[in-house]
Design brief:
about 325 residues; mainly alpha; DNA polymerase, domain 1; 2 domains; three-stranded antiparallel sheet; 3 strands; about 55% helix; globular
Length: about 325
């Protein structure tokens, strides 16, 4: 592992020198390239451990793109990061350090209608049960999961959540979503209770960095929690709970919406709670499983009711 890490460090140093000497990039642009490359390395390390650069494949890049998507990263930012990775792998090709670029055929994700991953309620219970409340940040992590699932928040909305966003004695939070749009989201008793325990306990004794006083979720240094930190927390809890699905903070948002729709919630109400500007975006959550659809038809369709009353078996 150490040798792999050292190899990557050497590649990065050489690449940085190449950009500086041959591309004449500004300091800020150079820093952006390095930041994006380090984000990719952190992702690889977090997934399965940092692989040798020659063993990287197209699939690693595809999973990285999904990760960026789950972080609510704007498409323009995703395009910039992929452009930087293409440049990095092109440099490695020029120096004969790799045989082919894993980014050669990579494309930025389009707004597809694919079905999102969803956790079952019992799987969410297992994740919550895996949190050790006696450990530092235990109550914070529980409040994070409860809020993600209880309110269907995007990860960017969660980390941006402030104490001043809590509407007193109402069970509502004022969420600042995409495009700085505000919406009121009702949280269940469990989620609000978890938030209150964290705010009154762990957070109340934290040393908070100036300027972060109003943010709800803080890291161990007293600064606002980052999106990638939330991703790491979710991943570790999923492993501890024995969940084998690839999940992210966004999975709880998908699960929130799916479970509401399956439970009979009005699609328009779900749209408002999710902060979707178009109902067509919310309609993806009508992907109810076939067993649920079948049981619903058998239960409610007039023809089936008549047959059931006549003890006709299907």
């Amino acid at each position: 592992m150490g040798n792999k890490s050292n190899s990557w460090n050497n590649y990065i140093v050489d690449y940085q020198s190449f950009l500086f000497a041959e591309k004449s990039l500004s300091k800020s642009t150079l820093e952006a390239y390095m930041h994006d490359l380090n984000l990719f390395i952190r992702f690889l390390t977090m997934e399965d451990g940092l692989p040798d650069v020659n063993s990287l494949t197209h699939k690693h890049l595809v999973r990285f793109l999904k990760f960026l998507n789950d972080l609510d990263m704007a498409e323009t930012s995703q395009a910039r990061i992929i452009s930087g990775l293409r440049s990095f792998f092109s440099f490695l090709l020029l120096d004969d350090l790799i045989d082919e670029s894993p980014a050669e055929l990579i494309e930025l994700p389009k707004n597809s209608r694919r079905l999102p991953d969803v956790l079952q309620p019992e799987e969410i219970e297992r994740i919550l049960a895996a949190i050790d409340l006696s450990k530092p940040n235990g109550h914070r992590d529980k409040a994070i999961i409860e809020t993600l699932y209880g309110g269907g928040l995007r990860v960017s909305e969660l980390v941006g959540l402030k104490i001043s966003n809590l509407v007193e004695n109402s069970g509502l939070i004022n969420v600042i979503g995409k495009g700085n749009k505000q919406r009121l989201v009702p949280l269940g008793d469990e989620a609000f209770s978890a938030l209150q325990l964290y705010l009154d306990g762990e957070r109340s004794v934290s040393k908070i960095v100036h300027g972060n006083e109003d943010y709800i979720f803080l890291n161990h240094l007293g600064s606002v929690l980052s999106r990638i930190s939330v991703f790491t927390i979710v991943k570790k809890l999923a492993v501890a709970a024995g969940i084998r699905k690839r999940i992210s903070p966004h999975t709880f948002r998908h699960s929130f919406a799916t479970h509401l729709v399956e439970g009979g919630a009005d699609l328009r109400a779900v749209q408002i709670m999710l902060g979707h500007s178009s109902i067509s975006t919310t309609e993806i959550y009508t992907h109810l499983d076939t067993d649920f659809l079948r049981s619903t038809i058998l239960l409610y369709h007039p023809l089936n009711k008549r047959h059931r009353n006549q003890n006709v078996k299907f």
